[in-house]
Design brief:
This protein has helices spanning 26-32, 91-96, and strands spanning 15-16, 35-36, 41-43, 52-57, 63-66, 71-72, 82-88, 100-102, 109-110, 114-117, 128-131, 142-152, 157-158, 164-172, 177-186, 198-200, 205-211, 214-219, 227-230, 236-239, 244-248, 255-260, 270-273, 281-283, 288-296, 303-313. The chain has 315 residues and is mainly beta. Strand 24 and strand 25 form a beta hairpin. The model is unreliable at 1-33 (pLDDT under 50).
Amino acid sequence: MRKIAVSIIGAASFMLVGTGCLKDDGFEAQKYGIEIAEVKGVAFPQANSSPLMGSINSQTTAQDIQGPYVTLEQVASATSNVTVTIALKPELVAAADPDFTVLPDGSYTLSTTSVVIPAGSKSSDAIKINIPNSASLDPVKTYALGLTISAADQGYTVASNQKEVVVAFTIKNKFDGVYTLKVRTTGWAAYGIADGATYTYPEDFDIITVGANSVSSFSNYRGDNLLPAFSATGGPTAFGATSPLFIFDNGTNKLTDVQNTIPDDGRGRKLEINPAVTDSRYDPATKMIYAAFIMKQNGRPNQYFYDTLTYVKAR
C-alpha cells in the first residue's frame, strides 16, 4: 500500500483504512478525492499462487529447501526490527494438491518460526527447510509443508489474503540428471534401422526419477519419452509404443532390468536386459550410464541396443 495525497473534492474527505494486503486504490482515490492511509501489514508475497516447488537429491547428508520470505506491505522500510511468527498448517497441503504428502514429523527442521524483517529493510531472509536424510523419504512421493503467518509485532497486521503458502519438493535419485546419448543398434537393418553404427542423439535427455532405483528418459529433441534410435542413414528416430524404464541395483549400481512402460499396441514390443553384457551399469565416479538391452517384437528378430549416457548437469 502507499499513501496518496490528493485534492479534496467537495465539502468532506474520507479516510479509508484497511487490514491485510489491499489492492492499490490510487485510481479510485484520484477519481473521488479520497486519501488512503498506509497500512502496516506483513505478507508472503508468494501466496495465492502455485506451490513453491523444488527438488533435492536422495542422500544421507543434510540439504536445505528454500521456502518463502516475508515482506512489509508498505512503501517505507521498517524503522525497527519486525518479528513475524510462522506456524505449520498441514491442511493447506491437501488443498493445494491431493497427491501431495505432508512431510513427516522428525524428517525436517525449519530454520526459524520467528522471522525477522530487519530495520532498514522491507523483506526477511527466506525460511529454509532442512532435510537431514532424504534417503529415508520415498522418492515416488511429492512432499509438502503448509505455512501460515500467525502474528507480527510492532503494530503490524497480517495480510488475510497473503498469509498462507505451500512449499513442495520431489526427491531425485542418484541416476537423475541431464545426459547426452550415444546409441548403437544391431539386428534391424532389414527394417531401416542403423546396424552397427554409433550416433549421438540431437539435444540432451532428461533422466527422471521414477523410484528409489529406477528412471525414465525424456528426449528434449523430440519432446517425448519414446525409445530413441537412428535410421539406416543416421537420422534420429524413435520406436512407437515403447518407453524404457531403467532399473538399477542401488548397492552395486548395476543395471538389472529394462522394461517397456507403454501397453502393448498389438506388436508385442518388450524390453529386457541383455544377459550377454555383464557390465551395464551406472558409474558414480563419472556419472555415466551404460545400458545394453533388447527390444523384442512379434514376428521380428531381436533389436539390440547399446546406449551410453554421459552426464551433463543436474536436472
